[in-house]
């Protein structure tokens, strides 16, 4: 059974939104570095692919970007439009290049969406992305760092362990705890080399592959996140 992000859009939005910008949180460690890796977004058109319930849209718009958000789930798109009524959210129908042929796209963000898409589909999506991205544009990906974090339980995030896990396998992730917990059952397990291969096959070159870790000033309670960085950040051009 695939994860129905439409059914969990409300809880998911809560899990992924910081009360304040920044701070010591998984949101800051995972999504914020990807937002910052986009560079100065003022006046730029940013495609937020697998946008969820406008998790990043409002931040992007506040910083001067024009946002096009695509997501395969129509309920998620409804939620995104409610949370960020001033951006352009559309249901993705599988034809990216066709949908955006007449648009100019400066930057593409895939914030925790790459991991939800199996190889056969991501290959096709990446080729389309390469073709619509304007010259000098970049693709920024934030994903679970399964290679380092598989099986690790962090404070609000648990990458459930799968025996003999192989690249391409579906793995599960538990977000939050108690009655607000969200179980995601269809993330794809990938190692760093698998990301690089998929991107290069599609004509991208990988400019950076980083594992954001909490600074010393975050304190000792973030020791696990320093030892096994939970997130992977990729910049490709
Ligand atoms: C884990 S959520 C990430 C949402 C948001 N970008 C964030 O940073 O939290 C993954 C999103 O990708 C969407 N998605 C999954 N497969 C997709 C596909 N093939 N095409 C477009 N969107 C997809 C899901 O509906 C979901 O909203």
Written description of the protein model:
The structure is a single chain. The chain has helices at residues 9-16, 26-37, 57-62, 74-83, 96-99, 119-132, 146-149, 192-201, 223-227; strands at residues 45-49, 66-71, 88-91, 105-111, 133-144, 157-159, 170-175, 182-188, 206-210, 231-236. The protein is globular, with a radius of gyration of 17 Å. The protein has one domain (9-145, 190-236): Vaccinia Virus protein VP39 (Rossmann fold), CATH 3.40.50. It has a seven-stranded mixed sheet with strand order 3-2-1-4-5-10-9, with helices on both faces. The chain is an alpha/beta fold and 237 residues long. The model has no long low-confidence stretch (mean pLDDT 93). Strand 1, helix 3 and strand 2 (66-71) form a beta-alpha-beta unit.
């Amino acid at each position: 059974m695939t994860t129905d992000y439409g059914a969990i859009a409300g809880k998911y939005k809560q899990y992924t939104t910081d009360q304040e910008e920044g701070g010591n949180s998984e949101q800051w460690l995972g999504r914020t570095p990807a937002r910052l890796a986009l560079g100065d977004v003022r006046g730029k058109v940013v495609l937020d692919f697998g946008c969820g319930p406008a998790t990043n849209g409002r931040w992007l718009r506040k910083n001067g970007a024009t946002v096009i958000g695509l997501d395969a789930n129509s309920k998620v798109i409804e939620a995104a439009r409610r949370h960020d009524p001033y951006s352009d959210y559309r249901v993705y129908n599988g034809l990216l290049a066709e949908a955006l042929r007449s648009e100019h796209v400066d930057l593409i963000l895939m914030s925790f969406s790459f991991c939800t898409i199996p190889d056969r589909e991501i290959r096709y999506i990446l080729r389309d992305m390469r073709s619509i991205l304007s010259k000098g544009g970049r693709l920024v990906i934030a994903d679970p760092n399964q290679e380092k974090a598989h099986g690790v339980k962090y404070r609000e995030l648990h990458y459930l362990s799968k025996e003999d896990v192989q690249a391409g396998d579906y793995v599960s992730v538990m977000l939050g705890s108690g009655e607000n917990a969200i179980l995601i059952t269809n993330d794809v397990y990938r190692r760093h080399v698998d990301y690089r291969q998929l991107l290069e096959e599609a004509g991208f070159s990988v400019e950076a592959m980083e594992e954001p870790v909490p600074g010393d000033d975050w304190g000792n309670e973030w020791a696990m996140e320093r030892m096994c960085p939970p997130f992977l950040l990729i910049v490709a051009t």
